[in-house]
Amino acid sequence: MNDSTVTLTLNDRDEAVQLFGSRDQYLRLIRDALGVRIIARGDTVQIDGDPTLVEQAERVFAQLRQTLQRQESLSAENVRTILAQAQKGDNGAAPAVPAPVTSMANNRSVRPRTDGQAHYVEAMKSNDVVLAVGPAGTGKTYLAVGMAVNMLRQGAVKRVVLVRPAVEAGEKLGFLPGDIAAKINPYLRPLFDGLNDMMEPEQVKRYLDSDIIEVAPLAFMRGRTLNHSVIILDEGQNTTIAQMKMFLTRMGNGSKIIVTGDITQVDLPGNLKSGLIDAIHRLDNLEHVAVVFLTEHDIVRHPLVQRIVKAYEEERPRRKK
């Protein structure tokens, strides 16, 4: 089959600059993903290659232009999302822009960027307990923090409690210097990173000082009841069954629990069974409990991360369900 050529004329040079990306990075993403040749000159784009691929590229540019009109800017994630839809054979309609989860300190918004993430956000809105499972980079922790910050801003909850099992320290943190926040801080770094993106650092500090935001190792949750709170357990795959039961039963009135984890990365010693894996099977059919599985297709970090995860998944023996 002979190659085909399509030439697109853009509105002006400003649109071209936004559409092409810094140093033409968006053009390179499209070219590498679809295997077409792209030549950009001023406010025109020439696409050469297999007719089917050229047609896909033409649809991608049309959707990117519509997205640019709505958002007034584009990101690499926008380009990757639209490319993924084009390659799956979705129709030429521009994808709906998901509602933001919360705003960030720099006035940008946190919003789901894949269908899987959108499903995860909806599950958090609609359920009291959510178990989110997926590989690194799928936004499990970041979106959970976004949901917690949004509920706090809206007054739907009074507190946010961030919890993580300190497996490496065997939950024995007493020998470390500082108060409990300082002791557990290395284990909660991903949660703090999300908080500092979405809130001013001074406000995060004030909330920590006043216990509106609390950080706690899992071992310190025993015997407590948490009312009107969002409680996030990160790295939930590294809890034992007993620890997971203890954690889930801390939920009081008006509270929401979100557990995130990667069940392919269990660091428990010996033959201990992961409490997250156990909870997925025990709680899957309970009302007001949602189990969400994110995959490598939901990774929104550097595109190479998706391929790395897939490579390791292919080498690893499949777990029995």
What does the model show?
- 41% of the residues lie in helices and 17% in strands.
- With 321 residues, it is of the alpha/beta class.
- Helix 10 packs across helix 11.
- The longest helix has 21 residues.
- The protein starts with a strand and ends in a 6-residue tail after the last helix.
- About 2% of the residues have low confidence.
Spatial order of strands in the largest sheet: 8-7-9-10-6-11
Mean pLDDT: 82
Strand content: 15-25%
**SSE series:** EHHEEHHEEHEHEHHHEEHEHEH
CA radius of gyration: 22 Å
Unreliable stretches covering 5 or more consecutive residues? 91-97
Helix content: 40-55%
Q: Sketch the major β-sheet.
A: 6 strands, parallel
User: What is the 3D form?
Assistant: elongated
- State the end-to-end distance: 45 Å
Tally of separate helices: 12
Structure classification: alpha/beta
Query: How many extended strands?
Result: 11
In short:
The chain is of the alpha/beta class and 321 residues long. It is built from twelve helices and eleven strands.
Which terms would index this structure?
321 residues; alpha/beta; six-stranded parallel beta sheet; 41% helix
Set out the fold topology.
Layout: E1 4-9, H1 13-20, H2 25-34, E2 37-41, E3 44-49, H3 51-71, H4 76-87, E4 102-103, E5 109-110, H5 115-126, E6 129-133, H6 140-154, E7 159-164, H7 180-184, H8 189-198, H9 201-209, E8 213-217, E9 229-233, H10 241-248, E10 256-261, H11 275-283, E11 289-293, H12 303-315
Parallel strand pairs: 6-10, 6-11, 7-8, 7-9, 9-10
Antiparallel strand pairs: 1-3, 2-3, 4-5
Helix pairs in contact: 2-4, 3-4, 5-6, 6-8, 10-11
